[in-house]
């Protein structure tokens, strides 16, 4: 009797062991996700707007939050917010320009777009556009006085100042969060690398700009890590011979110089950048970016005026279409 029991036990033992091992392996295997996990814009989702694919590289706080329970990412130091101030005005290419710009900005983590319309009121076109852009944004407006709307006079002075005023107001009472401001005209072309470079701005940073000043590029000349002059084909006597697209300023500097603004009075054409930078920094203090200012990461592109010679005045289309 005893030997029968023993033999049964030894026959069953390997099977019991196999079952135990199988169960153990199965529970260790990571379960496949129920649904594929795309990246969603937390902003678009919050608005109930369309869900737009978001930057795949780099830390994005909202996205990390969504995936927190699954991935447990290592704690990230807070990325400085990039505030992009964009003056914009109504013209046939406006929506196309804003579309290009939003497509770029949407790929940049922690960017806040301050769009300032040169208009007496916020337009429907821009409001609708921003609502669907899937970006954290602020929509402002201020009209340029008629007397300043003349060729040869600086553009977008009032709009950039409105953006500055908003930033200062927003950070009036709280300790300044890390942030970087830059002026992003709506017609330029921006590489994604540019944003990585400007994000580490401590006070005021500078870099080359392509297709500007009558040359293939303009750039700050750098020696031993310091700006010592300017490579430019136009008015080399400017204190800061740099285009609006060629610099960024830390939020801290903007807040600690509350009176620094763009000026109409006394400002000559092409001197807006210098007049502004003079108020907040010195050439010696500038931080060269883009490999000691040897890489072009932004281009001063200008869109051709569209030919609307065949646009009908009377026999209009049967539907109204926003362009
Ligand atoms: C150059 C500089 O790159 C600009 O930063 C500078 O503001 C401008 O000169 C100037 O003359 O003041 P440019 O390509 O000639 O740029 O100027 P635009 O691109 O036509 O205008 C600069 C920005 O101001 C754009 O974002 C544009 O949308 C906006 N803008 C222009 C207005 O808001 N209102 C206007 O009437 C014209
Ligand atoms: Mn331009």
Structure description:
The protein has 323 residues and is α/β, with parallel strands linked by helices. It is 32% helix and 18% strand. The chain has helices at 2-28, 42-47, 61-71, 94-105, 124-131, 157-170, 192-198, 251-256, 272-280, 290-293, and strands at 81-88, 111-117, 137-141, 179-183, 189-190, 204-206, 209-212, 215-223, 226-231, 247-250, 287-288, 298-299. The strands form three sheets. The chain has a seven-stranded mixed sheet, sandwiched between helices. A three-stranded antiparallel sheet has the order 7-8-9, with no helix packed on it. A hairpin with a 2-residue loop joins strand 7 (209-212) and strand 8 (215-223). The protein is extended. The relative contact order is 0.12. Residues 25-69 have low confidence and may be disordered. It binds uridine-5'-diphosphate-glucuronic acid and manganese (II) ion. Manganese (II) ion binds at residues 185, 187, 302. GO terms for molecular function: galactosylgalactosylxylosylprotein 3-beta-glucuronosyltransferase activity; metal ion binding. Its cofactor is Mn(2+). It is found in: Golgi apparatus membrane.
């Amino acid at each position: 009797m005893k030997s029968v029991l023993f033999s049964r036990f030894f026959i069953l033992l390997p099977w019991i062991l196999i079952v135990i091992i199988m169960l153990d392996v199965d529970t260790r295997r990571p379960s496949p996700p129920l649904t594929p996990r795309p990246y969603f814009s937390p902003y678009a989702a919050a608005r109930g707007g369309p869900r737009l694919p978001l930057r795949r590289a780099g830390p994005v706080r909202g996205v990390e939050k969504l995936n927190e329970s699954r991935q447990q990412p290592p704690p990230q130091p807070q990325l400085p917010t990039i505030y992009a101030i964009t003056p914009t005005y109504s013209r046939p290419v406006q929506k196309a320009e804003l579309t290009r710009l939003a497509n770029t900005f949407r790929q940049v983590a922690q960017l806040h777009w301050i769009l300032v319309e040169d208009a007496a009121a916020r337009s429907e076109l821009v409001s609708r556009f921003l609502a669907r852009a899937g970006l954290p944004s602020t929509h402002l407006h201020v009209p340029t006085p008629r007397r300043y709307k003349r060729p040869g006079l600086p553009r977008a002075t009032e709009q950039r100042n409105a953006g500055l005023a908003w930033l200062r107001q927003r950070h009036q009472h709280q300790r300044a969060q890390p942030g970087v401001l830059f002026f992003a005209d709506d017609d330029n072309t921006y590489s994604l690398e540019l944003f990585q470079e400007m994000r580490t701005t401590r006070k005021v940073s500078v870099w080359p700009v392509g297709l500007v000043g009558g040359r293939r590029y303009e750039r700050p000349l750098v020696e031993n890590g310091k700006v010592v002059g300017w490579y430019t084909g136009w008015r080399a006597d400017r204190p800061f011979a740099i285009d609006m697209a060629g610099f960024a300023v830390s939020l801290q500097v903007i807040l600690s110089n509350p009176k620094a603004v763009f000026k109409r009075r006394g400002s000559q054409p092409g001197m807006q950048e210098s007049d502004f930078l003079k108020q907040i920094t010195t050439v010696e203090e500038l931080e060269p970016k883009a490999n000691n200012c040897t890489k072009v990461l932004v281009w001063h592109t200008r869109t051709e005026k569209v030919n609307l010679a065949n646009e009908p005045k009377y026999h209009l289309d049967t539907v109204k279409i926003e362009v």
